[in-house]
Amino acid sequence: MNKLAGHTKTPTLRSGVKGRILDIIFASGTKTCAILVFVIIVAIMVSLFIGAWPALKKFGPSFIVSTEWNPVTEEFGALIAIYGTVVTSIIAMIIGVPVSFGIAIFITELCPAWLKQPIATAIELLAAIPSIIYGMWGLFVFAPFFADHIEPWISDTLGNLPVIGPLFSGPPLGIGVLTAGIILGIMVIPFMASVFRDLFEVVPPVLKESAYGIGATTWEVIKKIVFPYTKIGVVGAIMLGLGRALGETMAVTFVIGNADRLEKSLLMPGNTISSSLANQFTEAVGEIYTSSLIALGLILFFLTFLVLALAKYLLVRLTLKEGIRT
Amino acid sequence: MKKIIGIALLASLVALSGLQMGEAKAGKVRTISGAGATFPYPVYAKWAATYYRLTGIKLNYQSIGSGGGIKQIRAKTVDFGASDAPVKPENLERWGLIQFPMIMGGVVPVVNLPGVKPGQLKISNKTLVDIYLGKIRKWNDPAITSENPGLSLPSRNITVVHRADGSGTTWIFTNFLSKISKDWREKVGNAKAVAWPTGIGGKGNEGVASYVKRIRGSIGYVEYAYALQNRLTYIKLKNRAGAYVEPSIETFQAAAANADWKNAKGFYVVLTDQPGEDSWPITGASFILMHKIQERPEVAKTVLTFFDWCYKNGQEMAKKLDYVPLPLKVVELVEEAWKKEIRDKSGNPVWP
Question: What angle do helix axes A177-201 and A113-128 make, rounded to 10 degrees?
Answer without folding.
Answer: 130
